[in-house]
Structure formats: structure tokens, C-alpha cells
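Hello, quick one for you while I still have it in my head. A protein chain has come my way and I'm curious about its shape. Can you walk me through what the C-alpha cells say about the fold? No rush at all, and the record is pasted right below.
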Amino acid sequence: LTVLLYSATCWIPYINIGTTIAMMNLPSALARGQKFSPLYLFEAKYRKYMGEYLTMFGNYILVAFASIPFMGIPFLITIYGWSFAPLLLIDKEVNTSEAFTLSTKITYGYKLKMWLSAFIIEFTFILAILITFVTGVIPFLLVLFFMMLSPAMTAVFYKHLVVEREKYNNR
């Protein structure tokens, strides 16, 4: 339901940045087992992080351009290293550079597993699109399904690498 609500509102100016930030942080709530209403997308706390969020994605773009001469490999490694930064920005209430640093430390040694998981999901998505042409299933439903699958996969990694470590460290 949250994905459907996001799909319906992601095109509305100003609201869309807040709902996008909320949607990006859905894995954090899932990893912690928190119950939430789909209306959480409209909470003002997410719009509060607009500047940090846009700065963060500006850095992603800079790294992408800087990695072009190196055939993009540093971009992939950096992106997977920074993959929890949007979550940590709000979950831990840290600034952008701290979120990048924490994310890099947390994902150290796990980037290949994360990449393989994403590759399998993306490969399955492409396969599903090809099957769509044969069976006539509505592509929109497939896109919604994979929009739900991606936060779930991120939530599993976030729970394993952040939430469970917090519990262990707090003992």
C-alpha cells in the first residue's frame, strides 16, 4: 500500500522530496520491525532532511563522473559502500559526511554479497519483463512488485549489519 501511495504522489512538487526520503528510509523501519501507516510518507520530519538528502545524491553523481576514466568500477564499489547512508542520515540523525563514513564502515566486507543480491533481483526483473511480452501480464504490476522487493532486500542487509550489531553492542 505504501508503494502504491508513493507511486501516486511522487510527481507532486515539494511533497515528492519528502515522500522519496520517507520511501528511501522504509528499509530502516522494516529492519527494526516497526509498525507504520502508509501515511508516514507525509511526515514533516522527512522534508526536514531535504538539503542533506540532495547533497548526498549530488555526491553520488560526482563519484559517478569521477569514476568514468576507471571504467565505473570505483563507482560500483563506492555506491555499495554508501548504500546505507540515506538510512543512517535519518535513523542515526547524523550529517551527510558522517552517514557516508558510517555506511562505508558498516558495509566493509559485504559489498559483493550486496551486489550479487541486487544483480539477482535485477536479472529476475529483466526476465519478468521479457515474460510480460509473452504472457501479456501488465508491466506496471511487475514494476510495483520490484519496487516492494528492493526495500525488503535493503532491510534484510540493514537489519543484519546495523540493527543486530546495535543490539549486540548494547549488551
